Amino acid sequence: MADLRLDILVFPTYDVGTLAIYDSSTYPDSPPIVSGATISIDIPSFGIVSLPFLVLETNIFNSSNLGISDIGIYEPLPDGIYKLKYSISPATTNYVEKTIMRIDVLQEKFDSAFMKLDMMECDREIKTQSKVELNSIYLLIQGSIAAANNCAETQSYKLYKQASKMLDNFIKNNCGCSGNNYQVNFI
User: Where are the domains of the chain?
Assistant: First the structure.
């Protein structure tokens, strides 16, 4: 007989509007007899919502069932640090907590900028400069995720904001760079 070990996994959905959480727990009985399975999700800028959680299933959440938007209205979920707590009755002793940095909105914007790079009709230095800028932004995004995974929330948000600011500037300038950074730093 297996011991009770609660665990959850957050899967990428590649969709700004959904959050997928899987119950990867080990239960002492099969099928598991679980009462009061719930998940509490601390949503950035919206607070904590507690919802029923399906055992040994992938649970999909969106703005509507999280209470961010009206029922039937689907909006992008906000980027930021999400704190998850999966529990079964009694919740005081049987729970697991995870913290994740969600960056799907920023990643979608980055992907769009990256895809435009090949379509830009720039000279070699400008195209190379654009790649350098996008690589710098990507590293900031990854740094934000790493900081959140290591409980450095302030650093995570700082890196996220810097990446977002650089990406907005990159998109606004539409490859309007001079290529000087590449020539100065890499030639």
Answer: 8-102, 104-186
Per-residue pLDDT of the chain (187 residues; tens, 9 = 90+): 568 889 999 999 999 999 999 999 988 877 777 778 999 999 999 999 999 999 999 999 999 999 998 888 899 999 999 999 999 876 667 899 999 999 999 999 998 888 877 555 555 666 777 888 889 999 999 999 999 988 889 999 999 999 999 999 998 886 544 444 444 444 4
Three-class DSSP labels, 30-41: CCCCCCCCEEEE
Q: pTM higher than 0.70 for the full model?
A: yes
Asked whether the beta carbons of 46 and 37 are under 8 A apart, the reply is: no
The CATH architecture annotation of domain 8-102 reads Sandwich (2.60)
Distance CA 111, CA 68 (A): 25
Q: Is the CA virtual torsion 107, 108, 109, 115 positive or negative?
A: positive
